[in-house]
Every structure is written in C-alpha cells, then in structure tokens.
Amino acid sequence: MTVSDDRLRVAERTRTVTPRHDPRRPAPLPPPAGVDDLPRYLRAAAVRADADDLSTAYTACDTAIAAATRWRSPAALAAAHALRTSVYRRLGDMPAAERDGELAAELFAAAGADPRGDAVVLLLARRIATRHDRGDLQGAEKLLAELDGEPGDGSGALALRYARGRLYADTGRPGEGLADLFHCGERLAARQADRPHVLPWRSAAAQVLAATGTREAAARLVAAEVAAARRSGPASTLGRALRVEGTVLDGPAGLAALDEAVRVLRETPRRFEYALALVAFGEALTAARRRPQARRVLREAAELAETCGSATLADRARRGYVAAGGKLRPVVPAPRTGDA
What we know:
The chain is mainly alpha-helical. The protein has 15 helices and two strands. The protein has four domains: 20-113, Serine Threonine Protein Phosphatase 5, Tetratricopeptide repeat; 118-194, no CATH class; 214-261; 271-330, no CATH class. Helices cover 67% and strands 2% of the residues. It is globular, with a radius of gyration of 21 Å.
C-alpha cells in the first residue's frame, strides 16, 4: 500500500507477516530429543509464545513439524500446526493462521483424536478467534456449530468459552457473551491462574458492558486488568488492556490510555493488536478534533490491517480516515500484457 500527499490508497494485496529474531530474547529452544519429547518441546514453545517471544515459538513450531514428519507422528504434527496457528494469529498473519488451523483440524481427525479432547477444542477456539479477528463472523459461527454440546473444563474449553463469549457479544447476544466471559474468570480464579496474559476476560467483558451502557462497571473491570498487566506479563497484555480502557473512558483520560496503548504495542510483535489500537486511537483523535494526526494514525492502521489480512478492520480504518478529512485514492489497475 502506497501513501502520498496525505491520501490513502487501497492495498493491492495482503503481504506476509514474517517473524524476526530479536537478539534481546532468550536463546532458541534445544531441539526435541525424540518423538516422545515432542509434547514437552511444544509446551515449552507455547510458554515462549505466551511471553511474546514469537520468533522463537515460530522457529520451534517449524522444528516440531519437521521432526514429527520425520518420526511419523500424526498427533504431534497436528499439535505443532495447531500451535503455529496461534503464533501466526499473534503475529497478525491471519491468512496463514487460518491455513494452519484447517490443516491441524484435518491432521487431528486423521490421527483419530477425540473431537471433545482438550487439544482439539483448543484448536477450535484458535480458529474461531482467527475468523473473528478477520471479521468473518459467519465463518466463526459455522466453526462454533461443530461443537457437540457444552465445552468441558480444561484449558482448551476455557479458551473456547472466551472465544465464544467474544463472538456472542459481536453477534447480538451480549448476555450469553458475558456469561461465558465471567465463567472464564471464575474458573481461572479457582485455579489461581487469573492473569490477563492467560485470558484477558476482564477487558473482553468490559467491552460488552460498555456497549450495553454499563460504563462504570466496564471501567472498573478494565482498570483492574490494566493494573494487573502493569505488575506482570508481556507488554502486549498491557497494550491490549489500555486499548480497551481507552474506548471505555471518555475525554482526555480515554485519549491518554489509547496513546499509551499505541506506544506500548508499537514495540511488541503483536501486529494485529497494534492495528486495533491505531484504529481506536485515530477515531478518538477525530472525535477530539485533531484531524491531521488522526489521518496519519488511520493511514498506518489501514496499511497494517491489510497486511494482517483483516479486511473488516482495514475498512473501518479507511472509513475513519475519510471521516477525518482524508481522501481515498483508488488503485490504478496494472496494464495488461498481450492485448492486441
């Protein structure tokens, strides 16, 4: 996507998001010792992903995929692709996340995995979240319909309830969405694992509450998540919580939270989260009559959303850009070759 003269041009195609090694990150994981070591190796890679060390996690997934193929372990191969689905989504490469998710589902089925088993349910949650992020709500609902009955009580089931709660909230079922999100909070508290980088249920619930007019309760919930994220966890967790806080609070306080969210997320590998923060910040700047700055922010947001493969977020950024006084320049088709 090319920008000139403060005019936004629609991107010709989606680019690929590629993780880069950060020399400040810990060293890569030692390779798995054998086929029986692959589950432990993938768990270690998941820990790195949770800490936003996405370049290490990405490399570990590739290593695990090659090893599982070499050692002819269909279940491990499915698990490796399932984890890479999550890594791609966190990096902001939604098309790649969707492809890996589909492949992982096929591999789990071919391996005879229990469709209600925790690993399969966790993959389903990741696939629903990916389609949700792309704005494909119908596709996400179609995936959710594959679930037979209510999810269980494992880690995958909680992730599914979180993804389902967000989806319900965005498809006109806020009460059911809140029920799922508060259930996540109760179960995490019972396990003494209630940390926002595990599942940011408070900020998700705050968005639903704010949308339904319960702004005071929303502000209290998201403030608790911001405070927890400042104490511990990766920077992306804080950035996400600040983004939601900025959309819940009014006036200068909301704008300040969004400004900080953008600054925090800019330094993380979570490109889609950064794009979300840019869009929210740009819209808030427009509301504050700071239109030149809003156009600059929304220009970057539209570019990044296109790169991430989220047409819905890119369209929202472009609409915000126009509302801030920007002018869209249509793509000029490339000349065709071979015409008479």
